């Protein structure tokens, strides 16, 4: 395995060790409590910034600002103007894209090749939602009532949205919540993850520069149990859009009960990635490996249960293991780095525990299996890309979300049986099928209970194509027209005309 030892480090202009305030009502302010927390680079341990630490009081202020904006001038802003704001924001994000990519990289560790590679998707999302802003419409609906009664629907913004995001892709996650809110005329209070709050704050600056009115986008950094919980339970929040773990998702639902707020949840997964013996193995090896190793496995839809047809199991798994061993692991700012650190000590401990659990359960690590601590890596949260062979369906490493660079390779023989086994999980987010047989691809794609099925590819995403979960991977869709609907209410209007 190639390891990046040291990289020339220039200070990021935003993550320069300074203090960052929160954005409420167009003003950059301190937390009501005056508290601050620190955010560090997970590759080096270096302090990047101290950040205003919001809690319930700040959430109250932000929600009040979002409510005033929603009921005030923002409600008069025309679709065309909201579109203009999103296009302006897209241009600003494009202009500052290198800085934003580096900010994601230093704050959460992802390789710069990956954060730069998000360019098309991030800009595409902003411009897609800009397009949606002028495409909102209800319907006229013919009814069967006696007499003359005209019926139609209006689509109206749902109101104040509480957005809670994780750390595994801060720029894209922030855009994914703010974009549809601006497009539909909602207002937002966004709580970034405590592990990586900086890109959301920088994006909020760009929102202000783009001319987004005060109170429409508010960003309150802070911890989940305080700021996040206050947002999820706030009686004046109309909807919560959450991305994160299923455990937190469950507490979001409970917290939402007070005012029965709308909830959309994009949670975790244990996605099956299925390789048939007739697949183009030269494509499937890197495809299946990166379906897990990308972003060090910190992707909700990672294809972590690798089902391989018995006939090619040994060959395929050893090729994936070789691929994993050759990956360049190191500081994300090095353009040659393919795998960065995990985001935090907590994530590293969690993943390390699963590495032990896998060994104890009788799986065999054919690549990786431990931490990486050589030289400069000792200061960061690095884990070896790991491939476990001989994994059985009921092992914990085959059932629980690890959120690290860990593949659990399982063999199968019979296709019908395979589909049952692939679906035997509490989750249903992503899934993959590698085959050259078109009929088989269609059959399996139909049978899998998951929100996305990737055939002969993995993890492709597009602003126009809906993404979301079945089962405990959550509900609601992001991207696509369905996403915009999540931010809209439907009102039926009846008019007696004669
Ligand atoms: P988490 O679900 O605790 O955190 C996600 C967001 O929710 C953060 O902004 C956090 O501050 C907030 N939060 C936490 N507790 C909250 C509460 N009670 N009320 C409101 N908001 C709350 O996830 P965490 O701790 O970062 O990671 C733990 C595990 O969760 C990971 O190992 C992984 O398995 C899974 N996960 C899945 C993600 C996904 O994309 N589906 C993203 C992050 C984590
Ligand atoms: Mg947490």
From TrEMBL:
This is Betaine-aldehyde dehydrogenase. Keywords: Oxidation, Oxidoreductase. One of its GO terms (molecular function) is oxidoreductase activity, acting on the aldehyde or oxo group of donors, NAD or NADP as acceptor. It holds the Pfam family Aldedh. InterPro entries: Ald_DH/histidinol_DH, Ald_DH_C, Ald_DH_CS_CYS, Ald_DH_CS_GLU, Ald_DH_N, Aldehyde_DH_dom. Gene3D superfamilies: Aldehyde Dehydrogenase, Chain A, domain 1, Aldehyde Dehydrogenase, Chain A, domain 2. Residues 28-493 form the Aldehyde dehydrogenase domain. The active site is at 266. SUPFAM superfamilies: ALDH-like. PROSITE patterns: ALDEHYDE_DEHYDR_CYS (PS00070), ALDEHYDE_DEHYDR_GLU (PS00687). It comes from the Bacteria.
């Amino acid at each position: 395995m190639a390891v990046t030892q040291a990289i020339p480090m220039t200070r990021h202009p935003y993550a320069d060790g300074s203090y960052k305030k929160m954005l409420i009502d167009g003003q950059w302010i301190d937390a009501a409590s005056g508290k601050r927390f620190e955010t560090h680079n997970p590759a080096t341990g270096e302090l990047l910034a101290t950040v205003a630490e919001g809690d319930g009081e700040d959430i109250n202020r932000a929600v009040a600002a979002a409510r005033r904006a929603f009921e005030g001038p923002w409600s008069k802003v025309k679709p065309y103007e909201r579109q203009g704001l999103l296009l302006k924001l897209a241009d600003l994000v494009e202009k500052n894209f290198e800085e934003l990519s580096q900010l994601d990289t230093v704050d959460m560790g992802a390789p710069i090749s990956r954060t730069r590679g998000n360019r098309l998707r991030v800009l595409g999302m902003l411009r897609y939602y800009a397009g949606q802003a002028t495409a909102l419409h209800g319907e006229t609906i013919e009814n069967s009532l006696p007499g003359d009664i005209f019926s139609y629907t209006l689509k109206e913004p749902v109101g104040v949205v509480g957005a809670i995001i994780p750390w595994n892709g801060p720029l894209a996650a922030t855009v994914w919540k703010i974009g549809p809110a601006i497009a539909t005329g909602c207002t937002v209070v966004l709580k970034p993850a405590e592990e990586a709050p900086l890109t959301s704050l920088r994006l909020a600056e760009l929102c202000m520069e783009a001319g987004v009115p005060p109170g429409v986008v508010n960003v309150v950094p802070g911890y989940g149990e305080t700021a996040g919980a206050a947002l999820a339970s706030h009686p004046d929040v109309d909807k919560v859009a959450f991305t994160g773990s299923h455990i937190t998702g469950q507490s979001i639902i409970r917290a939402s009960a007070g005012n029965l707020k709308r909830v959309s949840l994009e949670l975790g997964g244990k996605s099956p990635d299925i390789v048939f013996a007739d697949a183009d193995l030269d494509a499937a090896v890197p495809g299946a490996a990166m379906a897990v190793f990308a972003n060090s496995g910190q992707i909700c839809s990672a294809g972590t249960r690798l089902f391989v047809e018995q006939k090619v199991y040994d060959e395929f798994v050893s090729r994936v293991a070789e691929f994993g061993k050759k990956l360049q692991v190191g500081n994300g700012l090095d353009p040659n780095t393919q795998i960065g650190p995990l985001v935090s000590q907590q994530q590293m401990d969690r993943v390390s525990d699963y590495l032990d659990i896998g060994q104890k359960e009788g799986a065999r690590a054919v690549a990786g299996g431990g931490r990486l601590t050589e030289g400069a890596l000792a200061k960061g949260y690095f884990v070896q890309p790991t491939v476990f062979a001989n994994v059985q369906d009921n092992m914990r490493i085959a059932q629980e979300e690890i959120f690290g660079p860990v593949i659990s390779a399982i063999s199968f023989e019979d296709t019908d049986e395979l589909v049952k086994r692939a679906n035997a999980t509490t989750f249903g987010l992503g899934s993959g099928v590698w085959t050259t047989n078109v009929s088989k691809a269609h059959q399996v794609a139909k049978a899998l209970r998951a929100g996305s099925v990737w055939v002969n590819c993995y993890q492709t995403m597009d602003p126009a194509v809906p993404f979301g979960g079945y089962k405990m991977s959550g509900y609601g869709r992001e991207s696509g027209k369905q996403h915009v609907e999540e931010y809209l209410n439907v009102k039926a209007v009846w008019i007696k005309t004669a």
